[in-house]
């Protein structure tokens, strides 16, 4: 059974991830503007500046994975469903956590879509995304 402490720990990580994703989205927008201008120096700077929030997001995702592995299997599956599924099970006390996780997924999807457009514009046929659907 997930406890209030389990929900709180996951919420803390999700909130921290939202802050990192927000910073990443802002930097991605700056990158898009630089790419549109054809400003190679600004593109390189924006790419370098995105490294820190990307690493923060990776650390937060790892923290959630560690939380999953520390829980009994049924609780780990439930927490993962609450955080990752578009239509998670209804669990009393988890509503705010589910909303935050959904905001994070939406923000991440916007970032990935923008990154895809930028990468395809800058790299053309050699784009990272040219080889992926």
Mind explaining what this structure looks like?
The chain is mainly α. Helix content is 80%, strand content 0%. Helix 1 (4-37) packs antiparallel against helix 2 (40-70) and helix 1 runs parallel beside helix 4 (95-123).
Q: How do the helices and strands follow one another from N- to C-terminus?
A: HHHH
| Helix percentage range | over 70%
Mean pLDDT: 93
Give the oligomeric state of the chains in this entry, treating copies of one chain as homo and distinct chains as hetero. single chain
Structural class: mainly alpha
Q: Which word captures the global form?
A: elongated
Distance between the termini: 39 Å
Beta-strand residue percentage: under 5%
Main sheet, how many strands, which sense, barrel? none
Supply the number of helical segments.
4
Low-confidence stretches: none
Alpha-carbon Rg, integer: 17 Å
**Counted beta strands:** 0
Write the layout of secondary structure elements.
Blueprint: H1 4-37, H2 40-70, H3 73-84, H4 95-123
Helix pairs in contact: 1-2, 1-4, 2-3
Question: What is the structure about, briefly put?
Answer:
The protein is mainly α. It is built from 4 helices and no strands. Helix 1 (4-37) packs parallel to helix 4 (95-123).
């Amino acid at each position: 059974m997930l406890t209030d402490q389990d929900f709180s720990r996951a919420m803390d990580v999700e909130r921290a991830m939202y802050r990192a994703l927000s910073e990443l989205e802002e930097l991605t927008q700056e990158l898009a503007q630089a790419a549109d201008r054809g400003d190679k120096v600004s593109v390189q700077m924006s790419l370098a500046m995105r490294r820190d929030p990307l690493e923060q997001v990776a650390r937060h995702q790892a923290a959630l994975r560690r939380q999953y592995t520390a829980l009994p299997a049924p609780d780990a599956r439930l927490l993962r469903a609450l955080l990752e599924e578009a239509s998670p099970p209804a669990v009393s006390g988890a509503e705010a956590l589910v909303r935050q996780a959904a905001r994070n997924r939406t923000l991440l999807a916007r970032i990935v879509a923008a990154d895809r457009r930028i990468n395809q514009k800058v790299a053309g046929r050699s784009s990272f995304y040219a080889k992926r659907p």
